[in-house]
Amino acid sequence: MIRLAQEKDLEKIQGIYAYARKFMAEHGNPTQWGQTRPTEETLRKDIEKEQLYVIDEQNQLQGVFALIIGADPTYQNIERGSWMDDSTYGTIHRIASAPEAHGVMAQVLDFAWGKKKHLRIDTHENNKIMQHLILKNGFEKCGIIYVDDGSPRIAFEKIADKKVTEQKTSTAKKTLDETNRTVSEANTKTQIRIATPYDAKEILDIYAPYILDTAITFEYEVPALEEFRERIEHTLVKYPYLVAEKNGQIVGYAYAGPLHERVAYDWAVETSIYVKMDARGHGIGKKLYAALEEALRRQHIVCVNACIAYPDQENDAYLTTDSIEFHTHLEYNMVGEFHQCAYKFDRWYNMVWMEKSLCERPEKPEPMIWFSYLRK
What domain range includes position 222? Predict the structure, then answer.
Protein backbone atom coordinates (compact mmCIF):
# COMPACT_ATOMS: atom_id res chain seq x y z
CA MET A 1 0.00 0.00 0.00
CA ILE A 2 1.23 3.48 -0.87
CA ARG A 3 0.16 6.22 1.52
CA LEU A 4 1.22 9.70 2.60
CA ALA A 5 4.11 9.73 5.04
CA GLN A 6 3.45 10.88 8.61
CA GLU A 7 5.60 12.33 11.35
CA LYS A 8 5.59 8.97 13.14
CA ASP A 9 7.27 7.41 10.08
CA LEU A 10 10.23 9.80 10.13
CA GLU A 11 12.68 7.59 12.05
CA LYS A 12 12.05 4.61 9.76
CA ILE A 13 12.24 6.85 6.67
CA GLN A 14 15.62 8.17 7.76
CA GLY A 15 16.77 4.58 8.22
CA ILE A 16 15.79 3.78 4.64
CA TYR A 17 17.69 6.79 3.33
CA ALA A 18 20.75 5.86 5.42
CA TYR A 19 20.72 2.42 3.82
CA ALA A 20 20.27 3.97 0.35
CA ARG A 21 23.27 6.29 0.86
CA LYS A 22 25.42 3.34 1.94
CA PHE A 23 24.26 1.26 -1.02
CA MET A 24 25.00 4.03 -3.54
CA ALA A 25 28.44 4.67 -2.06
CA GLU A 26 29.28 0.98 -2.36
CA HIS A 27 28.12 0.90 -5.97
CA GLY A 28 30.13 3.80 -7.38
CA ASN A 29 27.80 6.70 -6.54
CA PRO A 30 29.00 8.30 -3.28
CA THR A 31 28.17 11.93 -4.15
CA GLN A 32 24.49 11.96 -5.15
CA TRP A 33 23.22 12.18 -1.58
CA GLY A 34 26.54 12.43 0.23
CA GLN A 35 26.30 11.57 3.92
CA THR A 36 23.29 13.66 4.93
CA ARG A 37 20.80 14.13 2.10
CA PRO A 38 17.90 14.29 2.08
CA THR A 39 17.99 16.24 5.31
CA GLU A 40 15.45 15.94 8.09
CA GLU A 41 14.30 19.47 7.31
CA THR A 42 13.60 18.49 3.69
CA LEU A 43 11.65 15.42 4.78
CA ARG A 44 9.58 17.36 7.31
CA LYS A 45 8.69 19.94 4.64
CA ASP A 46 7.69 17.14 2.28
CA ILE A 47 5.43 15.64 4.94
CA GLU A 48 3.92 19.04 5.74
CA LYS A 49 3.18 19.66 2.05
CA GLU A 50 1.71 16.14 1.67
CA GLN A 51 4.14 15.21 -1.07
CA LEU A 52 6.15 12.46 0.69
CA TYR A 53 4.85 8.90 0.31
CA VAL A 54 5.79 5.53 1.78
CA ILE A 55 5.22 1.98 0.61
CA ASP A 56 3.75 0.27 3.66
CA GLU A 57 3.44 -3.53 3.71
CA GLN A 58 1.93 -4.80 6.96
CA ASN A 59 3.38 -1.90 8.94
CA GLN A 60 6.82 -2.43 7.42
CA LEU A 61 8.08 0.47 5.28
CA GLN A 62 9.49 -0.87 2.03
CA GLY A 63 10.19 2.40 0.25
CA VAL A 64 9.84 6.17 0.29
CA PHE A 65 9.60 8.86 -2.39
CA ALA A 66 8.38 12.37 -3.05
CA LEU A 67 5.84 13.19 -5.77
CA ILE A 68 5.44 16.88 -6.49
CA ILE A 69 2.73 18.06 -8.89
CA GLY A 70 3.45 21.38 -10.59
CA ALA A 71 6.48 23.36 -11.74
CA ASP A 72 9.78 22.32 -10.17
CA PRO A 73 12.33 25.20 -9.96
CA THR A 74 15.15 22.68 -10.43
CA TYR A 75 13.79 21.92 -13.90
CA GLN A 76 13.39 25.51 -15.00
CA ASN A 77 16.66 25.42 -16.97
CA ILE A 78 17.79 22.43 -18.98
CA GLU A 79 20.98 22.09 -21.01
CA ARG A 80 22.08 19.73 -23.79
CA GLY A 81 18.50 19.17 -24.88
CA SER A 82 14.93 20.22 -24.08
CA TRP A 83 11.80 19.03 -22.35
CA MET A 84 9.23 17.26 -24.50
CA ASP A 85 6.23 19.22 -23.25
CA ASP A 86 5.54 22.30 -21.12
CA SER A 87 2.20 21.21 -19.64
CA THR A 88 1.74 20.59 -15.90
CA TYR A 89 3.81 17.64 -14.74
CA GLY A 90 4.63 15.56 -11.72
CA THR A 91 8.20 15.22 -10.46
CA ILE A 92 9.49 12.12 -8.69
CA HIS A 93 12.24 12.81 -6.19
CA ARG A 94 14.15 11.01 -3.45
CA ILE A 95 13.23 7.39 -4.25
CA ALA A 96 14.74 4.90 -1.80
CA SER A 97 14.00 1.32 -0.84
CA ALA A 98 14.52 -0.61 2.37
CA PRO A 99 16.97 -3.53 2.59
CA GLU A 100 15.57 -6.68 0.96
CA ALA A 101 12.68 -4.73 -0.60
CA HIS A 102 11.85 -5.56 -4.23
CA GLY A 103 9.89 -3.85 -6.98
CA VAL A 104 9.86 -0.44 -5.29
CA MET A 105 10.68 1.51 -8.45
CA ALA A 106 7.86 -0.14 -10.42
CA GLN A 107 5.35 0.59 -7.65
CA VAL A 108 6.46 4.22 -7.41
CA LEU A 109 6.20 4.80 -11.15
CA ASP A 110 2.82 3.08 -11.41
CA PHE A 111 1.49 5.19 -8.56
CA ALA A 112 2.88 8.44 -10.00
CA TRP A 113 1.55 7.60 -13.47
CA GLY A 114 -1.89 7.09 -11.95
CA LYS A 115 -1.69 10.59 -10.48
CA LYS A 116 -0.29 12.36 -13.54
CA LYS A 117 0.25 11.24 -17.13
CA HIS A 118 3.20 13.61 -17.48
CA LEU A 119 6.21 12.86 -15.29
CA ARG A 120 9.78 14.06 -14.90
CA ILE A 121 12.65 12.54 -12.93
CA ASP A 122 16.42 12.95 -12.67
CA THR A 123 19.38 11.02 -11.37
CA HIS A 124 23.15 11.24 -10.95
CA GLU A 125 25.51 10.21 -13.74
CA ASN A 126 26.97 7.49 -11.51
CA ASN A 127 23.60 5.99 -10.58
CA LYS A 128 23.59 3.43 -13.38
CA ILE A 129 20.98 1.25 -11.70
CA MET A 130 18.47 4.10 -11.51
CA GLN A 131 19.17 5.15 -15.10
CA HIS A 132 18.42 1.62 -16.28
CA LEU A 133 15.17 1.45 -14.32
CA ILE A 134 14.01 4.86 -15.53
CA LEU A 135 14.60 4.04 -19.19
CA LYS A 136 13.08 0.57 -18.74
CA ASN A 137 9.86 2.23 -17.57
CA GLY A 138 9.35 4.33 -20.69
CA PHE A 139 11.10 7.60 -19.85
CA GLU A 140 13.20 9.49 -22.40
CA LYS A 141 16.48 11.30 -21.76
CA CYS A 142 15.93 15.03 -22.23
CA GLY A 143 19.09 16.84 -21.06
CA ILE A 144 21.05 18.01 -18.04
CA ILE A 145 19.60 19.93 -15.07
CA TYR A 146 21.31 21.22 -11.92
CA VAL A 147 20.23 20.66 -8.33
CA ASP A 148 20.54 23.15 -5.46
CA ASP A 149 24.24 22.55 -4.83
CA GLY A 150 25.06 23.17 -8.49
CA SER A 151 25.83 19.56 -9.38
CA PRO A 152 24.39 18.13 -12.61
CA ARG A 153 21.77 15.42 -13.05
CA ILE A 154 20.53 13.54 -16.10
CA ALA A 155 16.89 14.51 -16.64
CA PHE A 156 14.16 12.25 -18.02
CA GLU A 157 10.53 12.73 -19.03
CA LYS A 158 7.50 10.55 -19.79
CA ILE A 159 4.26 11.80 -21.26
CA ALA A 160 1.10 9.98 -22.35
CA ASP A 161 0.48 11.73 -25.68
CA LYS A 162 3.72 10.99 -27.48
CA LYS A 163 2.34 12.04 -30.85
CA VAL A 164 2.01 15.62 -29.72
CA THR A 165 5.62 15.75 -28.60
CA GLU A 166 7.20 13.30 -31.06
CA GLN A 167 9.29 15.94 -32.79
CA LYS A 168 10.60 17.44 -29.52
CA THR A 169 11.35 14.00 -28.13
CA SER A 170 13.32 13.06 -31.22
CA THR A 171 15.30 16.29 -31.06
CA ALA A 172 16.14 15.88 -27.36
CA LYS A 173 17.17 12.24 -27.76
CA LYS A 174 19.30 13.04 -30.78
CA THR A 175 21.04 15.80 -28.84
CA LEU A 176 22.12 13.41 -26.10
CA ASP A 177 22.86 10.41 -28.30
CA GLU A 178 25.17 12.42 -30.52
CA THR A 179 27.79 12.98 -27.80
CA ASN A 180 25.49 15.27 -25.86
CA ARG A 181 26.13 18.23 -28.09
CA THR A 182 23.82 20.49 -30.03
CA VAL A 183 24.38 19.71 -33.69
CA SER A 184 23.56 22.69 -35.88
CA GLU A 185 25.02 24.96 -38.48
CA ALA A 186 25.97 27.35 -35.70
CA ASN A 187 28.57 24.85 -34.57
CA THR A 188 30.85 25.92 -37.39
CA LYS A 189 31.51 28.94 -35.18
CA THR A 190 33.01 28.86 -31.72
CA GLN A 191 30.26 28.59 -29.11
CA ILE A 192 30.78 29.34 -25.42
CA ARG A 193 28.71 27.41 -22.89
CA ILE A 194 28.79 26.36 -19.26
CA ALA A 195 30.82 23.22 -18.66
CA THR A 196 29.46 20.20 -16.84
CA PRO A 197 31.30 17.35 -15.12
CA TYR A 198 30.27 15.22 -18.11
CA ASP A 199 32.81 17.23 -20.15
CA ALA A 200 35.66 16.13 -17.88
CA LYS A 201 37.24 13.70 -20.35
CA GLU A 202 37.43 16.24 -23.20
CA ILE A 203 38.67 19.00 -20.90
CA LEU A 204 41.30 16.75 -19.34
CA ASP A 205 42.50 15.80 -22.82
CA ILE A 206 43.18 19.50 -23.43
CA TYR A 207 44.88 19.99 -20.08
CA ALA A 208 47.09 16.87 -20.08
CA PRO A 209 49.63 18.08 -22.71
CA TYR A 210 50.15 21.27 -20.71
CA ILE A 211 51.09 19.13 -17.71
CA LEU A 212 53.31 16.65 -19.54
CA ASP A 213 54.99 18.90 -22.11
CA THR A 214 55.04 22.44 -20.69
CA ALA A 215 55.75 24.45 -17.57
CA ILE A 216 52.63 26.55 -18.15
CA THR A 217 51.11 24.61 -15.27
CA PHE A 218 53.25 23.51 -12.35
CA GLU A 219 51.18 20.37 -11.88
CA TYR A 220 53.41 17.29 -12.35
CA GLU A 221 50.97 14.43 -13.00
CA VAL A 222 47.75 14.22 -15.00
CA PRO A 223 44.91 13.87 -12.49
CA ALA A 224 42.61 10.86 -12.60
CA LEU A 225 39.40 11.45 -14.53
CA GLU A 226 37.17 11.13 -11.47
CA GLU A 227 39.30 13.61 -9.51
CA PHE A 228 39.19 16.04 -12.43
CA ARG A 229 35.43 15.64 -12.73
CA GLU A 230 35.10 16.50 -9.05
CA ARG A 231 37.20 19.63 -9.59
CA ILE A 232 34.74 20.84 -12.23
CA GLU A 233 31.73 19.97 -10.10
CA HIS A 234 33.23 21.75 -7.09
CA THR A 235 34.03 24.90 -9.08
CA LEU A 236 30.55 25.16 -10.59
CA VAL A 237 28.92 25.50 -7.20
CA LYS A 238 30.42 28.94 -6.63
CA TYR A 239 32.17 30.06 -9.82
CA PRO A 240 31.77 29.87 -13.60
CA TYR A 241 33.46 27.10 -15.57
CA LEU A 242 33.10 27.61 -19.32
CA VAL A 243 34.06 25.69 -22.44
CA ALA A 244 34.53 26.79 -26.04
CA GLU A 245 32.99 24.38 -28.50
CA LYS A 246 33.47 24.13 -32.25
CA ASN A 247 32.03 21.49 -34.57
CA GLY A 248 30.78 19.58 -31.54
CA GLN A 249 34.21 19.41 -29.90
CA ILE A 250 35.59 21.29 -26.91
CA VAL A 251 38.57 23.39 -27.99
CA GLY A 252 39.24 25.38 -24.83
CA TYR A 253 38.05 26.14 -21.34
CA ALA A 254 38.28 28.81 -18.66
CA TYR A 255 37.16 29.03 -15.07
CA ALA A 256 37.42 31.12 -11.93
CA GLY A 257 38.27 30.24 -8.37
CA PRO A 258 38.80 32.03 -5.07
CA LEU A 259 41.75 34.40 -4.81
CA HIS A 260 41.73 33.54 -1.11
CA GLU A 261 39.29 31.61 1.07
CA ARG A 262 38.65 34.40 3.59
CA VAL A 263 35.38 36.28 3.27
CA ALA A 264 37.00 39.67 2.67
CA TYR A 265 38.28 38.34 -0.67
CA ASP A 266 34.79 37.39 -1.93
CA TRP A 267 34.87 40.03 -4.68
CA ALA A 268 38.19 38.90 -6.21
CA VAL A 269 38.92 35.72 -8.13
CA GLU A 270 41.76 33.86 -9.78
CA THR A 271 41.23 32.92 -13.42
CA SER A 272 42.60 30.00 -15.44
CA ILE A 273 42.41 29.31 -19.16
CA TYR A 274 43.62 26.57 -21.50
CA VAL A 275 43.11 26.24 -25.26
CA LYS A 276 43.66 23.05 -27.22
CA MET A 277 47.23 23.00 -28.51
CA ASP A 278 46.30 22.95 -32.20
CA ALA A 279 43.53 25.56 -31.77
CA ARG A 280 45.61 28.39 -30.34
CA GLY A 281 45.88 31.70 -32.18
CA HIS A 282 42.25 31.79 -33.39
CA GLY A 283 40.71 34.08 -30.77
CA ILE A 284 39.24 31.27 -28.65
CA GLY A 285 40.94 32.46 -25.47
CA LYS A 286 39.65 35.99 -25.95
CA LYS A 287 36.06 34.74 -26.36
CA LEU A 288 36.35 32.55 -23.29
CA TYR A 289 37.66 35.35 -21.11
CA ALA A 290 34.99 37.77 -22.37
CA ALA A 291 32.24 35.32 -21.41
CA LEU A 292 33.94 34.55 -18.10
CA GLU A 293 34.18 38.23 -17.18
CA GLU A 294 30.52 38.77 -18.07
CA ALA A 295 29.49 35.97 -15.73
CA LEU A 296 31.74 37.27 -12.96
CA ARG A 297 30.26 40.77 -13.20
CA ARG A 298 26.83 39.24 -12.63
CA GLN A 299 28.26 37.73 -9.45
CA HIS A 300 29.43 41.21 -8.34
CA ILE A 301 33.11 40.29 -8.74
CA VAL A 302 35.23 43.45 -9.03
CA CYS A 303 38.63 42.13 -10.13
CA VAL A 304 40.23 39.12 -11.78
CA ASN A 305 43.75 37.86 -11.11
CA ALA A 306 45.95 35.47 -13.04
CA CYS A 307 48.85 33.45 -11.61
CA ILE A 308 51.21 32.82 -14.54
CA ALA A 309 54.39 30.78 -14.94
CA TYR A 310 57.26 32.94 -16.18
CA PRO A 311 60.72 32.06 -17.55
CA ASP A 312 63.50 32.90 -15.12
CA GLN A 313 65.71 34.31 -17.88
CA GLU A 314 64.52 33.55 -21.41
CA ASN A 315 62.04 31.38 -23.29
CA ASP A 316 62.82 27.67 -23.37
CA ALA A 317 61.30 24.50 -24.80
CA TYR A 318 58.76 24.31 -21.98
CA LEU A 319 57.76 27.91 -21.32
CA THR A 320 57.55 31.22 -23.15
CA THR A 321 56.13 34.66 -22.33
CA ASP A 322 53.10 34.06 -24.59
CA SER A 323 50.69 33.90 -21.65
CA ILE A 324 51.97 37.21 -20.30
CA GLU A 325 51.46 38.81 -23.70
CA PHE A 326 47.99 37.30 -24.03
CA HIS A 327 46.86 38.68 -20.68
CA THR A 328 48.46 42.05 -21.38
CA HIS A 329 46.48 42.25 -24.63
CA LEU A 330 43.32 41.68 -22.56
CA GLU A 331 44.20 44.62 -20.27
CA TYR A 332 45.70 42.68 -17.38
CA ASN A 333 48.51 44.51 -15.58
CA MET A 334 51.62 43.03 -14.00
CA VAL A 335 51.57 43.45 -10.22
CA GLY A 336 54.23 41.13 -8.83
CA GLU A 337 56.87 38.49 -9.51
CA PHE A 338 58.20 35.60 -7.42
CA HIS A 339 61.68 34.43 -8.40
CA GLN A 340 62.67 30.81 -8.90
CA CYS A 341 59.78 29.58 -6.80
CA ALA A 342 58.80 26.55 -8.92
CA TYR A 343 60.85 23.59 -10.13
CA LYS A 344 59.85 21.50 -13.15
CA PHE A 345 61.76 19.74 -15.94
CA ASP A 346 65.04 20.06 -13.96
CA ARG A 347 65.00 23.84 -13.92
CA TRP A 348 63.66 26.74 -11.85
CA TYR A 349 60.83 29.01 -12.97
CA ASN A 350 59.39 32.30 -11.77
CA MET A 351 55.74 33.09 -11.19
CA VAL A 352 53.95 36.39 -11.75
CA TRP A 353 50.59 37.82 -10.79
CA MET A 354 48.55 39.93 -13.20
CA GLU A 355 45.28 41.67 -12.44
CA LYS A 356 42.39 43.38 -14.18
CA SER A 357 39.58 45.48 -12.72
CA LEU A 358 36.08 44.66 -13.90
CA CYS A 359 34.51 47.80 -12.44
CA GLU A 360 35.05 50.75 -10.16
CA ARG A 361 35.16 49.72 -6.51
CA PRO A 362 31.77 50.45 -4.90
CA GLU A 363 31.73 52.02 -1.46
CA LYS A 364 29.59 49.10 -0.24
CA PRO A 365 29.73 46.14 -2.62
CA GLU A 366 26.70 43.96 -3.21
CA PRO A 367 27.11 40.45 -1.74
CA MET A 368 28.88 38.02 -4.01
CA ILE A 369 26.36 35.66 -5.65
CA TRP A 370 27.27 32.00 -6.06
CA PHE A 371 27.24 30.90 -9.68
CA SER A 372 24.88 27.99 -8.99
CA TYR A 373 22.26 30.48 -7.75
CA LEU A 374 22.50 32.55 -10.92
CA ARG A 375 21.58 29.51 -12.98
CA LYS A 376 18.33 28.71 -11.20
Answer: 185-374
Q: Each residue's pLDDT tens digit in the chain (376 positions)?
A: 899 999 999 999 999 999 888 887 777 666 667 677 788 888 999 999 999 999 998 888 999 999 999 888 888 889 888 899 888 999 999 898 888 777 888 889 889 999 999 999 998 887 887 888 888 888 999 999 988 777 888 999 999 865 444 444 454 444 444 434 433 334 458 899 999 888 999 999 999 999 999 999 999 999 999 999 999 999 998 999 999 999 889 999 999 999 998 999 999 999 999 999 999 999 999 999 999 999 999 999 999 999 999 998 788 999 999 999 999 999 999 999 999 999 999 999 999 999 999 999 999 999 999 998 776 5
Total domain count, the chain: 2
User: Any idea what the CATH number is for the domain that residue 208 is in?
Assistant: 3.40.630.30
Q: Which residues contact 211 (CB under 8 A, 6 or more apart)?
A: 217, 219, 220, 221, 222
Are 171 and 189 within one domain? Answer: no
Reported pTM: 0.55
Q: Is 43 helix (H, G, I), strand (E, B) or coil?
A: helix
- Same domain, yes or no, for 189 and 155? no
Is 73 in the same domain as 219?
no
DSSP 215-261: SSS---SPPPHHHHHHHHHHHHHHS-EEEEEETTEEEEEEEEEES-S
Choose one of 150, 177, 204: the last residue of a domain.
Answer: 177
